[in-house]
Design brief:
This protein has one domain: Rossmann fold, CATH 3.40.50.300. 35% of the residues lie in helices and 20% in strands. It contains eight helices and ten strands. It has a six-stranded mixed β-sheet, sandwiched between helices. The protein has a four-stranded antiparallel β-sheet with strand order 2-1-4-5, with no helix packed on it. The radius of gyration is 19 Å and the shape is globular.
């Protein structure tokens, strides 16, 4: 599904973050990218989204080199990115309306997508508003929504486009503990329902163990080879007190400590 070959990247005037880095992700897998602030987690996500371009090497998705953002890759950010002048429903349907404007050109919308008709757009928007528990706030503006509702709207806006790759950049970091747990549970449910390839960036060890079937651990850059942890506990009960869960978290914490 996703392959990185000899990937290198550095910001101008800085040392490399990735240097000849190889990594692969199979279709439908759920990955957590774990590491401290400044280690390159978000940079890797933005490279996958083609917001940034490699200095050297290449990124392939479904065997195709990525040279521009692809319409079937969804990106969810921590700051929601909702339009403040649009209602919740209008924000959720935004991508569908853009697809309908351009048509299935393979750049702005998938080449195999049907040109959206108003009735179809409304039906898909209604489905995801209902699925994410937003129907009762569909007419409200982002400033009138709670943090959890804004993040649900951002998730719905992405999933309504039926992505095959979903990239999430610490989307729950600013939320309170109960809202965060609720959205972690929702993420697990949606991954099981859709089979979308999920890559979730976090600096929270417990969240990585909960969400990542595989965990890519990043220490200080430059990164030359991946450190991958197989995680059989992903998708299980939200029971951070279980001995197995605590043992996995302890191992990851020790690993990050050695990197530091």
């Amino acid at each position: 599904m996703i392959s990185l070959h000899a990937l290198s990247f550095s910001y101008p005037g800085h040392r490399p973050i990735f240097d000849g880095f190889d990594w692969s992700v199979s279709p439908g897998e759920a990955w957590a990218i774990l590491g401290p602030s400044g280690c390159g987690k978000s940079t890797l996500l933005y490279l996958l989204a083609c917001v940034l371009s490699p200095t050297a090497g290449e990124i392939l998705i479904e065997g195709q080199p990525i040279t521009r953002p692809r319409p079937r890759t969804g990106l969810i950010l921590q700051d929601y990115g909702l339009l403040p002048w649009a209602t919740c429903a209008q924000n959720v349907s935004l991508g569908l309306r853009i697809h309908g404007f351009y048509g299935p050109d393979g750049k702005h919308a998938p080449a195999d997508a049907a040109r959206g008709q108003p009735g179809a757009i409304a039906a898909r928007t209604d489905h995801w508003l209902h699925r994410l528990g937003l129907t009762h706030v569909r007419g409200q503006y982002p400033s009138q929504l709670s943090g959890g509702q804004r993040q649900r709207a951002a998730i719905a806006r992405t999933l309504v486009l039926e992505p095959d790759v979903l990239l999430m950049d610490e989307p729950f970091a600013a939320l309170d503990a109960l809202t965060r747990e609720d959205l972690e549970r929702l993420t697990l449910e949606l991954h099981a329902e859709t089979g979308t390839t999920l890559i979730f960036v976090t600096h929270n060890i417990e969240e990585a163990v909960l969400l990542g079937q595989k965990i890519l651990v990043l220490g200080p850059p430059p990164h030359r080879r991946p450190c991958v942890i197989e995680n059989a506990l992903a998708g299980g009960p939200l029971d951070g007190g279980a001995p197995e869960f605590q043992a996995q978290c302890r191992g990851l914490r020790e690993m990050l400590g050695r990197h530091a």
